[in-house]
């Protein structure tokens, strides 16, 4: 759903709907970061107990994916805050123009692209983690 909202913000040409999707995307981004932070603590505890029980190779294979997911979500939020601050300094009146003008001239379009890239990176890491943590799944993704 998260990536669908990001893609829809580029496709839809109606300005009011596009702005609404932009704000929905910002809230989804914050929610994703909170869920990632909460799930990282849970997975860290689970992996620690697996490490204590002797599953050290599994722990070493899976640990980077959990850390990278939180890292990507945090970096995305940091970049979004930096872009918003830059846009506020440069031109306050044009910050929330969601029109159909050139892609690079609309801050909302730039932030939408940032959120879409972040979403795709998190999705990739989650699929890799699922493949590593459950090798007996019937569906195998080739990434």
Automatic annotation (TrEMBL):
Keywords: Membrane, Transmembrane, Transmembrane helix. It comes from the Eukaryota. The keyword Metal-binding does not apply. It is found in: Membrane. The keyword Transmembrane applies. It is a multi-pass membrane protein. The chain crosses the membrane at residues 21-43, 64-90, 110-127. GO terms for cellular component: late endosome; lysosomal membrane. Belongs to the TMEM192 family. This is Transmembrane protein 192.
